[in-house]
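> run fold Antifreeze protein
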Amino acid sequence: MMQFLAKAGLAVMLTAGTLAGTVAPAAAQLNIIIGDQDRDAPRDYRRPPPGYERPGFDRRPRGCDPRMAEDMARDYGFRRARVVDVTPRRVIVQGWTRRGPGEMSFANVRGCPAMRR
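> ok
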């Protein structure tokens, strides 16, 4: 009886191994297309389309806020810091340091990263 069970188990393992080897290549060649493949991707309805603004909606400026640039210059050690120039690329702040008058530039993007001290 034990010999019969051993042979049957071996036969089951060989059959399972053979079937597993044939299923993977057959599945790799399967291509399922649902719907029309010539259509564009579906629209994302979670966000409004570009250019859409609700009435009364106040858009915040996307660049560096001059008050934030002054505060950051004070954190770097400037006294009497003031914004002297705002360009599309940078915000320039002048003030006094331990060594005398100084100037610092911040990138005109959100968060005001320091460019030059």
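The chain has a mean pLDDT of 78.
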